[in-house]
Design a protein that fits this description.
heterodimer, A: 6 helices, about 80% helix, globular, B: mainly alpha, 9 helices
């Protein structure tokens, strides 16, 4: 099953990459950052929804697998938000001549990064395994509830970000759609692998102790 | 044990402990006064008017004070195993949460009675629309104490509890800052607020945001507290 997912991921990355660099290219050149900026934003929100569901599931069922998935998903989601913020800053510097400004979407993206970076900090602060899982799950639920408040509160600020973007050709739309699918597939694969690593290392620690 | 009796007993115990020990409030007050003073010094050489940042400095001071109060409220319980004893005595975890929340609020309001005049003086804040100001501050207090009380209980067995607690509270409370700063600034400078934030709606909208945040987080924290204290 994982081999199939790996193959699908590689194909999607290849096809979306080729399309983005060739017939799907947008002008001016720096606007092509949209293919690596927007898909992480969309997939990061989906990943954090997964964290929320797994955290609730863990609190109810106490199944370690749900904690492994939540932990893995936060790590991957955090990487996605780093890519989102970094590519956003590059675009901002070229288009608006500033690296960062307190505009609604930029504030929301930064807040997402902080919310989930703190999750990882929190996990590393507890020695007791069951306490760590419990507290991390509670925090993940609080962090997810925080996201709509961040979005609404950020909308109070003056906005410099484009509200939407429309593609000129259907190849560009296809390249964009495939980029989202590729990011989603890659994230799913990485979460799967990372959760398996966490489960295996826990089993090893258990056997050692 | 009857919930109301349990809440009353825990609340009175915490208030008496603070009145007797006088540890948390003085530390919070000195810290907030220092922060206000340092910000005032930093603004002295700039064009920025002190009044425009007074609201932000007040809220940052409140956030850091609630970190201290929340951590202390549960630290003494952790040292003596009180929470476990309360649970074994049949006290509902929700009652413990409500009692700690009210104690935290009382401490925070006692802190604000002192720090608000300090900020008014340091930042030369003009006439304030007190009813609106107090309403905004109370709503802000309820929201952050709801979160801080839960998280204060959560981090007691963590390494560097106060460090991680500060980071968590600041992160979760971040969306409150914009509407709260706007609402408080509008009570201090009602004629200038439209020029500084042209896209903001009005005071009522900011209050609705704060009230919604409070209701949702109070409910969520009240429900989640059971998972924090149980093993």
């Amino acid at each position: 099953m994982r081999k199939i997912l790996t193959a699908i991921t590689l194909i999607l990355i290849l096809v979306s990459g080729i399309l983005s660099f060739t017939i799907g290219q947008v002008t001016p050149l720096h606007r092509n950052i949209i293919y690596v900026h927007v898909p992480p934003a969309i997939v990061a929100m989906l990943v954090f929804t997964l964290v929320f569901i797994c955290s609730i599931g863990y609190l109810i069922t106490k199944r370690p697998l749900l904690d492994y998935i939540a932990h893995a998903a936060v790590e991957i989601g955090l990487v996605l938000t780093i890519i989102l913020n970094a590519t956003g800053m590059i675009f901002a510097k070229i288009d608006w001549a500033v690296w960062w400004t307190p505009s609604p979407r930029l504030v929301s993206a930064a807040a997402l990064f902080f919310l989930y970076a703190v999750y990882l900090l929190l996990r590393s602060s507890f020695d007791n395994t069951s306490k760590r899982r419990q507290i991390a799950a509670v925090y993940a639920i609080l962090a997810y509830i925080n996201v709509p408040f961040v979005f609404i509160s950020a909308r109070l600020l003056r906005d410099i970000h484009r509200p939407s973007y429309s593609f000129e050709t259907s190849w560009q739309s296809l390249a964009f759609f495939l980029s989202i699918l590729a990011t989603l597939a890659l994230s799913a694969l990485l979460i799967w692998i990372r959760a398996e690593i966490a489960a295996t290392s826990d089993k090893l620690l258990e056997k050692r102790s | 044990m009857n919930s109301f009796r349990a809440i009353k007993a825990i609340l009175l115990k915490d208030i008496r402990y603070e009145l007797h020990g006088k540890q948390t409030l003085p530390s919070a007050l000195i810290m907030a006064a220092l922060i206000s003073w340092i910000f005032r010094l930093a603004l002295a050489q700039t064009q920025t008017s002190a009044q425009t940042v007074a609201a932000a400095v007040l809220l940052v001071g409140i956030l850091l004070a609630v970190v201290l109060t929340s951590e202390k409220l549960f630290a003494m319980e952790q040292q003596n195993g009180c929470i476990d004893a309360l649970l074994m005595a049949g006290v509902d975890p929700s009652s413990i949460y409500i009692a700690k929340l009210i104690a935290n609020l009382i401490l925070l309001m006692a802190f604000q009675i002192v720090i608000i005049p300090v900020i008014v003086v340091l930042f030369d804040v003009g006439p304030i629309l007190w009813p609106r100001f107090l309403l905004t501050v109370i709503l802000f207090d309820i929201g952050i104490t709801a979160i801080a009380t839960l998280l204060g209980a959560a981090v007691q067995t963590a390494r560097s509890a106060s460090g991680i607690l500060t980071i968590m509270i600041l992160t979760i409370a971040a969306p409150l800052m914009l509407p709260a700063v706007f609402a408080i600034t509008s009570t201090m400078q009602p004629n200038q607020i439209e020029q500084t934030l042209p896209l903001i709606t009005d005071f009522r909208t900011a209050l609705v945001f704060l009230a919604s945040f409070d209701i949702i987080y109070l409910t969520a924290c009240w429900l989640l507290f059971d998972f924090i204290v149980s093993e």
